[in-house]
Amino acid sequence: MCNCALAESYRTCLHRTCLHRTWKTLACNESMKPDYDLFGKTAFITGGSGGLGNAISNILAARGAHVTIFARRPGPLEDAKNEIVRNCVDVDRQEINAVAVNMADASAVSEAFRSQPRIADFLYCCAGGNHAENGFFIDLKAAQLDSCMTNNYYSTAYAAKAILDIWVENDKKPTGIDMPNNTTTGPKTRKIVFANSAAAFLGLPGSVAYTPAKSAVRALADTLRFEVLRHNSSSTTYTIHIAFPADFISPGFVLEQDTKPDLTKRIQGTDVATLAELEKKFPSSENVARGIVARVDKGDFIICEDSLAASLLFTNMIGLSPKRGLGIVDSLLSVVMGCFVVPVLRRRWERMCREDGSNQSR
Ligand SMILES: NC(=O)c1ccc[n+]([C@@H]2O[C@H](COP(=O)([O-])OP(=O)(O)OC[C@H]3O[C@@H](n4cnc5c(N)ncnc54)[C@H](OP(=O)(O)O)[C@@H]3O)[C@@H](O)[C@H]2O)c1
């Protein structure tokens, strides 16, 4: 089957799956707190019409939050909004909004955030993807390097900057003056969650535009984690979280199957014929979303909940990020990964690249 036909079959099946999806079941999962603890809280979710952003939006709405989603295309935004409304625990007490905006336009993002009826308590940055920018460096156009950085790094950085500007300004004002719809009183916890990618841990051949953009997001999160400490006070606590999901099923992931080089697919294990086979190998957006939200609730900075591989790879790239738990497991694993696993992985990928090159030149 050619790539396009395969992707078409993926799309048809995925659409069917989406239509029959029972999002309310999210409410029965462990990440759903029984006391609807997010009543009165507001979540902004960029990329809220996509796989992961939509799933996170549904989880938060099922816990009582007001939710605003942001993306560019009005059609998917409207569909996603309707689904989130259906998942609200008490639709009369919750407000769900959808805003069409290019997150890579800094002033439009700031305006979109400021025009909302409430200040967000949580910002989930999920906008991104690379289905239009897969390929080897030699085959990519400069414009693709640009758009991949724009849609992944700048779309995230501008969102974080816009919300932090609003929060810090708001901290200087008496409660309720500027945003009368915000009903939360008492100390506030404000969270920025970066839905990044395990690609930030790996230079995956054929994903050469995406990895630098996701590495930049990680650098932003690491740095911002320090800087927000400057803004903490007795009334406001700022926290930063970053998730590194590995591959999962989503509309963007389905589209990507059209554009990935075969070598990338062989390395990733996405060289399969049908959506059903992909679904067997990779988790759903909903499962990944549940893991991320649960870890954000626990206060984790580094989140590799869905993938053991990502979790292990992090230990080889800790840098100034805080180690997880007491740090003992991460410290021990970093030695094992650095001495044994990573050298084997690196040599395997080098061999695969050489073989791919000689096959192409035949
Ligand atoms: N799926 C995976 O295997 C995987 C693995 C690791 C990490 N990730 C990352 O996880 C995040 C979500 O992935 P996904 O697979 O759920 O993606 P998806 O299904 O393709 O959804 C992406 C969302 O981002 C929005 N978006 C993209 N660029 C935007 C921009 N410039 N301005 C505003 N909205 C924008 C899209 O809407 P519009 O196109 O309408 O704007 C859509 O709502 C992405 O950052 C992705 O890189 C995905």
Characteristic terms for this protein:
single chain, 362 residues, alpha/beta, 12 helices, globular, binds NADP nicotinamide-adenine-dinucleotide phosphate
- Number of E-state strands: 7
Number of helices: 12
User: What ligand molecules are bound, each kind once?
Assistant: NADP nicotinamide-adenine-dinucleotide phosphate
Q: Which structural class fits the helix and strand makeup?
A: alpha/beta
Radius of gyration, CA atoms, in whole angstroms: 21 Å
| Biggest pleated sheet | 7 strands, parallel
Distance between the termini: 23 Å
Pfam families: adh_short
Protein name: Short chain dehydrogenase/reductase family oxidoreductase
Organism: Aspergillus felis
GO biological process, one term: 3-keto-sphinganine metabolic process
Could you characterize what this model shows?
The chain is an alpha/beta fold. It is 49% helix and 10% strand. The protein has helices at residues 3-19, 51-62, 74-87, 106-114, 142-171, 210-227, 251-256, 262-268, 275-281, 285-298, 308-315, 328-361, and strands spanning 42-46, 66-71, 96-100, 122-125, 188-195, 236-243, 302-303. Mean pLDDT is 90; it is low at 1-7 and 9-33. NADP nicotinamide-adenine-dinucleotide phosphate binds at residues 47, 49-53, 71-73, 76, 102-104, 126-129, 151, 155, 195, 197, 245, 247-248, 250-253, 285.
